[in-house]
Amino acid sequence: MTASSIRFADRPDAGRQLAARLLPMGLDKPVVYALPRGGVPVALEIARALRAPLDLILVRKIGAPGAPEVALGAVVDGANPQTVINEEVRRRSGADDIFLERARARELAELERRRSRYLGSRLGVDPAGHTAIIVDDGLATGATMKAAILAMKRRGAKKICVAIPVAPAEAVEAIGEQADLVVCLHRAENFYGVGGFYDDFHQLTDEETVGLLRQGWAESPDASRSLPAGLAKRQVAVPPLGLVGDLCVPADPRGIVLFAHGSGSSRLSPRNVAVADTLNAHGFATLLFDLLKPVEAHDRRNVFDISLLAERVTEAALYISSEPDIADLPLGLFGASTGAAAALLAAAELRNRIAAVVSRGGRPDLAGTRLAEVAAPTLLIVGGEDRHVLELNRQALAALTCEKLLKIVPKAGHVFEEPGALETVTEMANAWFQHYLSPAALEPAPVAPSVEPGKPAQPVSIISALRDAVEPLPAPDDPAFASAFDRFASSRVVLLGEASHGTSEFYRARAAITRRLIEHHGFTVVAVEADWPDAAAIDRHIRQLPYQPTRVSPFTRFPTWMWRNRDVDDFIGFLRRHNDAKPPEERVSFHGLDLYSMTASIAAVLTYLDRVDPAAAAEARARYGCLAPWSRELAAYGRASLSKGYALCELPVARTLVDLLQNELRYASRDGEQFFDATQNARLVANAERYYRVMYYGSHESWNLRDRHMFETLQRVLAWAGPDGKAVVWAHNSHIGDARFTDMGAERGEVNIGQLCRQAYGSEVALIGFGTHSGTVAAASEWDAPMEIKTVRPSRPDSYEWLCHQLGHERFLLDLRRGLESSLRSALAQPRLERYIGVIYRPETERWSHYSSASLPDQYDAFVWFDQTHAVVPLPTQVTAGEDETYPFGL
Q1: Shared fold status for 227-442 and 460-594+698-869
Q2: Can you tell me the distance from the alpha carbon of 288 to that of 281, in angstroms, rounded to the nearest whole number?
Q3: Is 441's pLDDT higher than 50?
Q4: Most exposed: 315, 537, 707, 880, by fewest CB within 10 Å?
Q5: Are 659 and 620 in contact (CB under 8 A)?
């Protein structure tokens, strides 16, 4: 049977097919347990069909030392977390008790994060006496499924059924030995990855996962108490014009949705009524009202008077705030056609009062420049055949700066008249409101709103206490500077930030600290916010590995000055000299964490395969050829994939990575070092392909994919370095400061390396931020524009930088760990603005472009201050005649 002979449109399609197989079996007291994230949409359809409760079973794989893809074991969440170990893999990999304990602690921390994110305070369903149906979107090896089965047995499940759409035949047989029943729709003889059997196999976000779970909980029998009972409907008059509206309120509403009609339709629009009925059934109050008075509706110009329509939506929202039974409910807006623009204008005006916005076949572009002011999470739904409106929605999506998502209903037109189209719209809207219209959505975030501009300087008492807490530092070239950081040497990972990508003092300080950690405390890994193949050229140079010529010099992609500068060149010289005196196994390595080098990474993979396996190289070259048309403008690939409606090159690039991993023992036995480099380049290509696709679905999606790639790369480098490996990371403050205590995490749902490291390594990680008040910086005005030496404006009075400037020290270190005096910690924890300058610096719009609210003592473990700073000195990108061409910077 070929792979194409059985395929699933998407995960819900697979779930419905599994449900059809399970339904006639008459399973006794079933409870559906999903393996997140991919198993959740499959499990939801099964739970619906069987009218069974939906729950999660959280499992995390433990990877083998040096080969994290190989399952050494797994950890299963629960009151008493279960650990399952593959003793054969343990024996062959040499994993000792210390490695296992560290790995177990790391995965337990991630399980805790996922339980908190997905379940909150919700109690799980006890499987004792029930048939536990464990669901995933497919199996590869079955390692995590085996751990889940064992956990269910220990928790007293009466019977265990595994339900999966697809798996290798041998994996199904192995699972069948553990479970009472296995239902698998396709036992594949030729298996090349679960995603190969789906038309849509996109990576689910946490937000999608939580939304699906909430749908299931609202519909399941054990949640019947939360379903609406005694729905009350009344006609209202919205002041001041007395516009007629229909208000429906369930007995215990979870939120309210205000509808904004468009194109002259009224509150009686059958499509919006159908959506409202579904929302009512799921516990939401709704208000449908006429935006125009009858006499106004006769004038078609009013239908396109967006300001007038937005004013009416705002008046209705204020009316809701005045009604006692609905005033405190989270408020969402649902707009259609021109009503979508009106809803977004109202959202921009009402700001925090609006919890979420959904647009159905709308014209959000008509909201114009006000789109950037919308703070509420916004979902844009468009028919796939409504091409003109779809393009306008894409433009509006780019203009929105809030959490946002564009969903396309395939084969649907502008008014969604096609069979099943309106039902799809309704499901999407319901899921969005389920996620964002809940009491938790209105709870204060870990970071409070930014302080008002112009806030006066901090009270003298804070300045005085802070002056006593900081430790003045000498210049970075003084040995006493770096010795002040010995207190962090017991960490496994030390992350060193920077407030800009073009400041000399930040680079020189990080170099001095890193040198100290290497020479005195056994750190052997330097990992930087740079592309893997570029950093690999430096790594080969400092460790004296065989020279590998490249088509382009390292670090010649914009922004060249970020790494090709005098301070980095001096640091590389130190690393080379340090390694000269060390045996190969003790030399410090240098690695890039970022994923922008897709073209260079493809070249590196092909070069490696040309040498070790020419036949595999030819196959990989053909697969990577899928990306060739976009090699000069990779962002265009994302646009093409979006317009086609599927991932054009995902399977070919992923297949090359799978082939490398399957040949791991054969390739690695020849040259493990170069095999590790090749597999990381292959991973980078696969993740970069996804990155350029998801960037069109919202900035937080692409940010999260990028930072997770960097974090996972760091983990693989540490695993390669061995159990005693210790790493120093150089990256921007926005990456290394814990995102949970900044606007980026609290308001936009973004994660970063700092947060992920804290969750993975706990007290074995140190996050050290950097800041400055004024000076100069190397930066550009636009992406790909020339570098300029720009003057850094003095910091704002409502910022942490201004507070530090008031102390009068040229340089200092502030240790923010638990030894900090409690009253000072409390004062500093009150969110203030913090400045972030990247490769782009626009002083004229600095407040909006470069400041964000944060809580400094929660964000970092320490903060390093330079009151005045200077721009880095860039190096030329051309090799000087007569110099050693193997030197990375060719000087």
Answers
A1: no
A2: 16
A3: no
A4: 880
A5: yes
